[in-house]
Amino acid sequence: MTDLTPNDHPATPDAALHAIAANLAGAMSDDARMSHAHADQLPDREVLLELLEAMRELVFPGFYGPRALRQQEVSNWLAARLSELEPEWIIQIAGGLAYGAAHNRIDAPDMDQAPALTRALLEQLPEIRRLLSLDVQAAYDGDPAARHTDEAILCYPGITALFVHRIAHVLYTMRVPLLPRILQEFAHAETGIDIHPGASIGESFFVDHGTGVVIGETTVIGDRCKVYQGVTLGARSFEKDERGQIKRGTKRHPTLGNDVTVYAGATVLGGDTFIGNGAVIAGGVFLTTSVPEDHVAQAGAVEIRVRPHHGLA
User: Fold this and answer.
1) pLDDT per residue over 3-19, tens digit each?
2) Are the C-beta atoms of residues 284 and 266 closer than 8 Å to each other?
3) Radius of gyration from C-alpha coordinates of the chain
C-alpha cells in the first residue's frame, strides 16, 4: 500500500465514504484514548525499532550490521554510528517525555532532560554488552544442543528478549514513559517471551526455549538463574485502593535468589514469595509460598497408566 499523508487525495470520496469518515471523526473526538491525530509529539514506534536494530549492531558488531571492518576501524565506526544515533534517540525520548507530561506523569523527567537521558543510555552500552556476553555464555553452557556461542546470538529467542530487555530496563529506570513498553512488546511478539522492562535481572540469565515465559514488573532475579518455557513469575492478586482502583508501584512479583532453576510450566506468584539460592522449582508447580535455599519444590506424584488403545486413534 502506498503511504499517504493527510494532504494526499488519490480519489474523490463519495457520499458514503464521507459518512463513514464523519462517524470516525466523531468517534475520535468522543474517545481520546484511541486517537492522537492532533498530537505534535509522540514516540514513533517505527523509528524506535530502527534505533533498536542499530543498537544491536553496536552490541553485536559483525553479527549484525557491517561485516568488513578491520579491528583498527571498529572504534571509529562505533563513534560515528553513535553520533548518528544520538539525535534520533533524543527525539524519541523527548516524545516519550512529552507523552508523560500530557498524561500527568509527574514522576517523568522534563522534556529538556532528553539529551542528558540519551547520553546516559548510550553510556550504559558497555555494561549492557557485558551483561549480554554473560547471558550468551550462560545459554551455551546451559544447552548441550548449542554448538557455539554464535548460535545463541543469532538463533536463541532468549538472547533476543534479553537484548531488548536490558535496553528497555535502562529507559524504565530513567522513568522515560512509553518507550520501554514499546520495546518490550516488540520483543514479546518476536520471541514469545514477555519480560516487563521493570523486572530486575542479574548476570548470566538463561531462558531455555522461552515460549510462553512471563516475567512481571517487580520481579527480581539473581545471578546464574535459568527458566524454561511456559514459566510465569507473576502476581498473586492485585491490591485495590479506597476507590477500588488497582494499586500500582507495589512489589507484586516474586524474587529469585542466585542459581535458581525454574522448570517448564511452573508458576511462581506473589511479591512476598522468595526463592532461595540454589533452589529448584519443578515443572508444572503452582507456587505462592517461599522456598528455602537449596530446596526443591515439586508437586505430588501423578499416577500414569499405560494401556492398549484397542485400535482407537
Assistant:
1) 555 555 567 888 999 99
2) yes
3) 24
Query: What class, spelled out in words, does domain 41-193 have in CATH?
Result: mainly alpha
Q: Does domain 199-302 have CATH number 2.160.10.10?
A: yes
pLDDT the model gives residue 301: 83
Residue 1 has pLDDT above 60, yes or no: no
Tell me how far CA of residue 66 lies from CA of 50, 51, 129, 151, in angstroms.
Answer: 16, 16, 18, 19
Least confident span in 49-53, 105-109, 190-194, 267-271 = 105-109
Which among 287, 305, 215, 225 is positioned nearest to 253, based on CA atoms? 215
pLDDT over threshold 50, residue 37: no
